[in-house]
């Protein structure tokens, strides 16, 4: 289903532009720089861990989690 949405979005045109989204991206793609392996400078990410023994699951939103900051 997501693939279908991607195809529909690629074929979409913005306003009265002559090219579709995918056509514009094909022109711009060679000009883009690769992503940094650890994210942009100064960025950070958060690592969530469940409390030991807590009845948590990946989809649970009602359990205690601890967050640790990781500088990138």
Structural summary, described in words:
This protein has 72 residues and is α+β, with helices and mostly antiparallel strands. The chain has two domains: 1-32, no CATH class; 38-72, no CATH class. 25% of the residues lie in helices and 19% in strands. It is built from two helices and two strands. It has a two-stranded antiparallel sheet with strand order 1-2. The radius of gyration is 20 Å and the shape is elongated. The protein starts with a helix and ends with a strand. The model has no long low-confidence stretch (mean pLDDT 76).
Short summary of the structure?
It contains 2 helices and 2 strands; from the N terminus they run ααββ.
Tally of separate domains: 2
- Please state the structural category: alpha+beta
Look at the structure and give the mean pLDDT. 76
Shape: elongated
Number of helices: 2
Unreliable residue stretches: none
Strand order of the largest sheet: 1-2
Say how many strands there are.
Answer: 2
Termini separation comes to 34 Å
Major sheet characteristics: 2 strands, antiparallel
Rg over C-alpha atoms, rounded to the nearest angstrom = 20 Å
Strand content: 15-25%
Helix content: 25-40%
SSE order: HHEE
Keywords:
72 residues; alpha+beta; 2 helices; 2 strands; 19% strand; elongated
Summarize the helices and strands and which ones pair or pack.
Elements: H1 2-11, H2 21-28, E1 44-50, E2 65-71
Antiparallel strand pairs: 1-2
